[in-house]
Each structure stands twice: as C-alpha cells, then as structure tokens.
Design a protein that fits this description.
Elements lengths: L10 E3 L18 E7 L1 H4 L3 E6 L6 E3 L20 E8 L1 H6 L4 E2 L1 H11 L7 E5 L9 H5 L11 E2 L1 H9 L4 E4 L13 H8 L3 E4 L13 E6 L7 E9 L2
Parallel strand pairs: 5-7, 6-8, 7-9, 9-10
Antiparallel strand pairs: 1-12, 2-3, 4-10, 4-12, 5-11, 11-12
Helix pairs in contact: 3-5, 5-6
C-alpha cells in the first residue's frame, strides 16, 4: 500500500466507465440516461443528474438479487469488500467452447498450484470475453433463438467456493452463470450463501492468478439489489 503513491505498487482498474453505449441485458429497454443540470457558462459550475439500472456495466449483485439471498447492497459488511484475488484463467477453454462452465476440478487445480483458497478471497473468472466489449452482438453471442452463449461458473465449482467461505465471485462476462443458463443455479447458490457477484469486469489480463488484492467499492444504495461498482486490483 505504501508504494501506491509513488507508482511502485501498481493499481489496475477493472471497471468500465458508465455511458449509454455499454452492453445491457437482453430485454432492457432503457439502461442509462444523463442530463446536464448546470453549465459553467450559464451557472458558473457544472452538474449533471443521471438514471441507470442497478445491473448495468461493471456492477455488483447483492445477495437479495436472487432467492434465498437476503442482504441488500448497503448491508454487505465492509470487510467483505476487500480480499485476496483468485484468478481462474479459462481463456483457452472459452475460446473453444462458448458454453464452457468452470468445473470443480479447475478450482482444485488452482489450489494445487497456489495453496488453499483463503477465507474472504474474491474469485474471478478470466474468460477473455472482455475483448468483445462493448460490441453487444459479440459480447452477448446470441443464437437465432435469442439464447446467449458465454462461459461461466458451474454449480459444482460454486459450491466448493462457498465451502471455502470466499466473499464473492466475479467474471468478465454478463453473468457468473453461463449465458445459456435457464435456472441461474450459481446465482441462487452463491447469493443464497451470502456471497456477492461482480459482473462485466474489464480486462483481467494484467492480474496474476495469485498474489493480487482487490478493493470492491459499490454504490451504497439503500435497499438495492445491486449497483455500479468500482473494482481495483492492487498488484504484488
């Protein structure tokens, strides 16, 4: 931390800037709007107001987003928003299979290389899907029936991570569940266990598989099912 002001310690921003040109979930008719309220020329200062969906751009899913989860975004304990980063790199597999689901064996493989996943870790799935952003057609990867195809966590992998008592799961795709999911099993299991999700993370290629530390800073929206989040990786 002491090396951050001098640049000796690198900080990587894993967040997309919020505009009206990001990729919304299919079916959302309105997702972001900004309005200028005052200008320097007219008022001597500059302000805007904005409206947006809770689940748009780089955002956090609070447990209450899916049953049986209960906590709203403002109720997530602050200590859970800081933790060691665990990066599960599946770019090679995702390039071959858009419907790839991270198996439990991949979690175990990471642990053989780096040690047991620590309690309070934040586990991120690096699929390489960020290279498709913000092209909605490529990022959603919908077929002729409107079904999306992008990689995600399997329920079995999520269950192991829940057992490890991690704080959250994250991905560089629209959802921690793979795109063709109909039941959102990972959402129900992980959010129901009190974890949170980080979705639409920006390019994770600079973050090592182990050794980095994450700072997760969501909007503290009372009663929110989620909201925009700024995510920083502090590199070793």
């Amino acid at each position: 931390m002491q090396g951050i002001p001098t640049g000796k310690t690198r900080v990587v921003d894993l967040t997309y800037s919020i505009t009206d040109k990001l990729v919304p979930w299919p079916g959302d008719e309105k997702w972001f709007e900004a309005k200028t309220n005052a200008t320097v020329e007219k008022n001597g200062y500059f302000t805007r107001s904005f409206w947006m969906l809770e689940h748009y751009g780089t955002h956090l899913d609070a447990p209450v987003h899916f049953p049986p989860g209960k906590a709203t975004v403002d109720q997530i304990p602050a200590q859970k928003l800081f933790g060691p980063a665990v990066i599960l790199d599946v770019r090679r597999q995702a390039a071959k299979d858009a419907d790839y689901r991270l198996p439990a064996s991949r979690v175990e493989e990471w642990e053989r290389a780096h040690g047991k996943i620590p309690r309070g870790a934040i586990v991120l799935l690096r699929t390489g899907w960020a290279s498709r952003w913000p092209d909605a057609q490529k990022y959603r990867n919908q077929d002729q029936h409107g079904k999306m195809h992008f990689p995600g966590f399997s329920l079995e992998a999520a269950k192991i991570l829940i057992e490890r008592e991690v704080s959250g799961l994250g991905c560089d795709t629209l959802s921690v569940d793979y795109g063709a999911s109909d039941d959102f099993a990972v959402h129900h299991a992980a959010l129901g266990a009190g974890l949170y999700h980080l979705e639409n993370l920006a390019d994770l290629s600079e973050v090592p598989e182990a050794g980095a530390f994450l700072v997760v800073a969501p909007i503290k929206l009372e009663g929110g099912s989620g909201g925009p989040v700024r995510v920083f990786a502090i590199l070793p």
